[in-house]
Every structure is written in structure tokens, then in C-alpha cells.
Amino acid sequence: MDLREYEQSKFAIAEILRSASACVPEQTTTLRDRLQPLFARLAEDRFNLVVVGRFNRGKTSLMNAILATDRLPTGIIPLTSVITTVGYGSKERVVLKFQNSRFDQEIPIEALPQHVTQQGNPGNVQRIATAEIQLPVEILRRGFYFVDTPGLGSLIAENTLTTEAFLPEADAFVLVTSYESPLSEEEVRFFKAAFSSGRRIFVVLNKHDTVTLEQRGAVLRFVSEQLNRLFDRTPPPLFSVSSIEGLAAKLSRNQARLVASGIAGFEKDLLSFLLKEKSREFLLRMCDRVREILCELPETGESAALRLHIGGLSKQFGGEQPDEFTEPTTMSIGAFPDLHVLHTCEICTRVADKLWDFQCKYQYDIIVNRTEQQRFADRGGLCPFHAWQLESVGSPYGTCAGYSRLLDRLAVEFRNLGSGAPAPDIRTRVRNLVPSEKDCMICNVRDEAEREAIQATAKRLEEHKARALKQLSAICVPHFAMLLSVVHDGELVRTLLERQAAVLQRFSEDMQRYAIKHDGVRRYLASEEESAAAQRGLLLVTGRRQVNFAPRQTHALGGDDISQGRQS
Questions:
Q1: Which of 22, 59, 177, 447 is most buried, taking the most CB atoms under 10 A from its CB?
Q2: Residue 454: CB partners within 8 Å, gap ≥ 6?
């Protein structure tokens, strides 16, 4: 199981809960009320990874290495009692939450030292409770949540109390020490406090790039001996790393350098614990609680199927063993790292802009230009969709001035048909008076603008593959099909398919996360992407309404008929 599979498991449990809700008799309100806390628990679930250590141990550098970013400020001395957290956000920002106040303050990340250091905020006179750093990093989106606590080495007693108060919230602790002076007195005291909490502890010896291999071995032996004395049972795992080297390796995508930095091995063990122990326990507990409710439902085919389903999930989660974990480093950047900044379909946008410009001009032309009024009448006007769209950008005056000649022409046609034409001819000729997409001038503008946009996008992708892929928007499925029809590079087609699948999966996950938070009455936890997921998902599948309104006329892009299977 990796992080994505863990999240998909929570989605599966949420689907069972929704189906169970539909099976609850209307009069059984107490049973229905018991479902909402389960949704809330799914919505709130996250991995709290508490990072502790003295100043200058490289705590922030370690977090930067894990997150594959250099945006967390290093070198600051957080000697106030402010807890700094790092979680997911659709854009980079810092939110300050104050004691005894519901009003938050947003600041740029560069201004963080002014609020969490003793120099910028002496004695925490600003009364800040937490500083929440939000970053658009994939591992954080999957539920990781870093907590940087003050306390170790601080002269302020309140800082130590703040750190100790957070112990119950942790899923795991990462104690960061370094080769300069490993295992200080404060770090030993922390071990004793953390050990009593029953939480898992990981010990990281940072900065191994600053010592020789011989010195590294000597320090590792010393720390191991100290840990063996401190713990009666198996001591916590010890990792030798270089955070600076690990970050550089991730940014340059150098796997060999990443392994040599020690970060890859640390991440693997950390994920193995969180996914094979913590998450497995959470999923099994959720299955048990859901099964209790399902057993109280009326006996129907649906409720029996739900009990069978939750039983299968429970068996699946219970059967997994910790040694099955083989994910090398899920925290590394994926193939498409910038999906969080995707704009809506660029082809839809270009076509919509051209349609808007044309309609604004055209609605004026059919008011003042008699020749254009006559052409408009001779064509039979516009298709029904664009007739109403033109009306929306015009005015009652414009509609009256532009359409009156068309109505006069239709009146003459109907009068002539009624003066003696055979009935079969009447029906055929009346049908021919109704404009289709082929007759509609705005439909023709749409088709031409679409051809130009598709060709331009394909050309850019084929000439500048890597850069163009990085800049590509979330192409809607209708336009994606059209785009593939004019891309002739087979390798590029496969890359585009892989990227489109990743985009669809990402939007689906955002929609499912929002749905769970809605069911759990936890919508305030939703990110900007999740809050906009409904509209973003529909735009991805169907494209813009004013562009993908009807089947295209048959037009060849690279010899293919792209009107087949279009959105109507």
C-alpha cells in the first residue's frame, strides 16, 4: 500500500457509508446520526509528524528535503512558544492563528521570522497560537502534516511545556540531532518524555556530509550505544543523513545522490511505519465501526451486500504485513509535479474569447448594417443555442432591430407555402427553414477557432515537448480527443495520455475529498482545489458550455473526423 492506495481505501469506506445512509429507515434518526462522526473521522485523518531538535540541527533542512522544496526558511531561531505546522495549500502562504481570537492573519512565508522568533516576537507578545505554513506539495496533499515544535534548548520554560503538550497529537516523532554534538541533555530528556507517550520515535543524525566516513562510523556507534542504554526494549531506528544533499538530489532528480544522502532510506522506513502500522490500524478500526452500523440495518439485499463489502475490505487491510512495503520513496516528486496549478482548458478559453469578440461585433452589425440584416435573414438566423447566446450579449432593442427582417422573411415563406404547395413539400420546406449548426454563422466561427487552437497547441507540443507539457492546461476531454487526432509523435501521444490520466485522477480525488468533508460537516478543512472541485471536474469532462454546446461539423484535422463521439 502506498499513500494513494491508502487514500483510495478511505474513499471506498466513504462510499459504503453513503450507501448505508440510504438504507437507514427514515424514522431511525439515531442510526443516521451515528454515520456523520465516521465521515468526520475520515475527513480529519492525517499523519502528524512532529519534528523536534535544538537550533542548528537542520530540522527545517530535513523537512525541505522530504518535501523536495526550498521554501521553508532555514536559519531562524524559533525561541517563542509558537508551534509551526506545515500542511497542504493550493498556493504558498502562512496563516497565523491567535490565542483567544477567531481572526486569522495571512502573511508571506518570508515574513515568518517576524512572528515565530524571540527577536521578532519576544515572549510571544503577539499571542500567536500556531503559524500554519501551507505549500502546494504532493506529499502534504496526501495527508502528511509536519509539526515543528519549540522547546529543546530553549531558555523559556513555556516552550518546553508547549512541546510536551503536543505529544498526544503525534503519530510519530523525528528527533533531529547532528554530527557536531549528538544527543544533548535536552534531547535525552525529550526521549524520556516521548517514550512515555508510546509514540514511535525516529532518530536522524543530520549533516553527515560534514564528516569523514571514519568519523561518521564513530558517531553512529556512540549514538547507538546511548540509545541502547536509554531503552529497555528495541531502541528507535537511527538514520544518518545529509538534508542539504537530499534536497539537491531531489531537485536535480539524481536518484544515486538521493540514496547516498540517506534521505531515501529514512523516507522508506518512515512511510513503511505510517502506512503499514498507523494507517492499517486506522482502516481496520473504521471497518469495525462501519460494520457495527451495518449490522443494525434492516435485512435487505443492499445491506447484505454492504456487509459483505466492508468485510472484504477489513480482510484486505488485516491481511497486509509490514514487510510487504516496497515503495522506494513515495515522497519524491512525481512525473507531473505541477498539476496543482492547472488552469482550465486553454482551447476552450481561446475559442470562447473569439466567440465573445465575434458576437459583440455581430450583434452590432445586424442592428446598423442593412446588408448584414438581409444576409442574416437569408441564412435563417442562428441555431437555437447561439440565438439565445447572442441575445444575452445584446439588448431588447438589438434583438428587435436585428431579427425583425428574419421574421418578415419567414412570414412570407409560410404564406407562400400555404397558398397551394403539396403537404409533403410543405413539411420538407418548413424543416429546411430551421437553421442547423451548418447554417449558423457563429457555429462556423467556433469550428474555425477550434481548428486553429488545436493545431497551435499540437505544434507547440511537438516542437517544445518538455516545456510545453509543463505549461499545458487541464485540457477538457472533448478537446483532448481532438488534440490527439493531430499529434503524430507516438511517444508524445503516450505521454499526453499518461498526463491526462493523472489530471483526471487528481480532480477525482479532490472531488472525493470534498464529498467526505461535506458528509462529515468539515468543509472548512477543504483546500481551494477541493472547494472548486465540482466545477473543475465538470469543466475537465465536458469543457465550457459556450464552446462544447453541440456536435461539430465534420472537419479534418490530420485526416481524422473529430466530430465523432462529441459532446452534445
A1: 59
A2: 347, 479, 482, 483, 486, 557
